Amino acid sequence: MLTGVGLGPGDPELLTLKAVRMLQKADVVYIPGGLARRLVEPYCTPIELPFPMSHDEEMIRAQIIENSEKIATDARDKNVVFGIIGDPNIFSTFSRLTVILKERYPDITVGTVPGISSITALMSETGLPITGGFCVTDGSAIKSLIRMKVRKPHELAENLRKEGYSRFSLVERMYMDGMQVLTGDDLPEESSYFSLLYAERDI
């Protein structure tokens, strides 16, 4: 199994307890660069893989394919962790890696452990809390949104369809007792205050 583990924004004290435990228990730990090495070395001996910072997409893909071959060899029968700065699912190298892994090695189970992202860390460093809706982008078009405190998910999804959204996931009571993850069109009429709806559209 391969698990992408978020290492936070760069401060060693912002690693989560779960991230530390995953690093300590892993059979193999891969990292994409030197900053990650500084964070994980107190807990394991990592293997650094090259992930070039380039606009040459062909070269980047070739390197990721080469990296995925190395990782897949271990991940078939070992507990493998890929440590990544920030969060593995938000504008992350790990997301690109998993796309190729799923294409070429669909038998390998892939999971993630969230990390503190630069988005949440930014609010602490600036002292500017977010109290309304906001947008995060790397310059690309907006293709997804997250709604918090969703009490009527089915009704909300139907309204979002009018704006072109067609894929939905609802997480109710995330990381709490009674947590539920619902994906697809069969969303409930009502849900807990502690519910988030993810919606995605084609652009």
From TrEMBL:
Coiled coil: none annotated. InterPro entries: 4pyrrol_Mease, CobI/CbiL, Uropor_MeTrfase_CS. Keywords: Cobalamin biosynthesis, Methyltransferase, Transferase. Residues 1-139 form the Tetrapyrrole methylase domain. NCBIfam families: PRK05576.1-3. Belongs to the precorrin methyltransferase family. This is Cobalt-factor II C(20)-methyltransferase.
